[in-house]
Amino acid sequence: MAGFNPMLALSVLQAGQGLIKSAGAAGAYKNANAALAANRQAELRQRQKIQDIDARRRRERLRQVMAAQRARFGAQGVSASSGSAGAVLRGLSDRADREGQDANGLEAFRISGINERYDRQRRRNLLEASGARKRTAFDLLRQGMRTIPLIEL
After folding, report:
1. Are 96 and 62 in contact (CB under 8 A)?
2. pLDDT score of 93 more than 90
3. 103 compared with 122, residue with greater pLDDT
4. pLDDT tens per residue, range 30-76
5. pTM tops 0.70
6. Would you call 136 exposed, middle or buried from its count of C-beta atoms within 10 A (0-12, 13-18, 19+)?
7. How far apart, in whole angstroms, are the C-alpha atoms of residue 138 and residue 130?
8. Cβ within 8 Å of residue 148, ≥6 positions away
9. Number of helices (H) and strands (E), helices first, in the chain?
10. CA-closest candidate to residue 107, choices 59, 49, 42
11. What angle do CA 34, 48, 94 make, to 5 degrees?
12. pLDDT for position 59
C-alpha cells in the first residue's frame, strides 16, 4: 500500500550508511597506497644516495692507491707505463671495477627487495579494501533480510 513503512525507511538508511562506509574504505585504500608509494620513493632515493656516496669513495680510494703505487714505482726508478708496472696498475683498476660491479649487484638486490615489499603491501591493502566492500555488501543483504518482510499479510 501507499503508507509509510518505517522498516523500509530504516533499511534504506542502513544501506546508505553501508555505502558511505564502503566509499570510506576505498578512500583509505587510496591514501594508504599513496603513503606507501611515497615511502618507497624516499627509500629508493636514500639507497641511490648511499650508492652514489659509496661509488665516489671507491673512486677516491682507487685514485689514492694508484697515486701511491706510481710514487713507489717512481722511487724505484721504474716507469709506471712499463710492462709490469702497467700490469700492476691495470690490476688495481680491474679490482676496483669488480668491487663496483659487486656493489651495484648488491644494491640491485636491495632495490628489488624494496619493490617486492611495496608490491606485497599494495596487494595486502587491496585485499583489505575489497574485503571491507564485501563485508559491507553482505551486511546490507543480511540487514535487508531481517528488516524487509518478504511476505506481507
Report:
1. yes
2. yes
3. 103
4. 788 888 889 999 999 999 999 999 999 999 999 999 999 999 988 88
5. no
6. buried
7. 12
8. 7, 8, 11
9. 2, 0
10. 49
11. 155
12. 95
Pick from 24, 19, 61, 33: nearest CA to 124: 33
- When the pLDDT of each residue in the chain is averaged and rounded to a whole number, the result is 79
CB half-sphere exposure, 37, CA atoms < 13 A: 7
CA distance 55 to 93: 14
Q: Find cell 644494491 and name the residue.
A: 107
The count of residues in the chain is 153
Q: How far apart are the first and last CA of the chain?
A: 12
- Close Cβ partners of 26 (under 8 Å, ≥ 6 residues apart): 129, 133
Cβ 12 vs Cβ 108: under 8 Å: no
Q: What's the pLDDT score for residue 137? A: 61
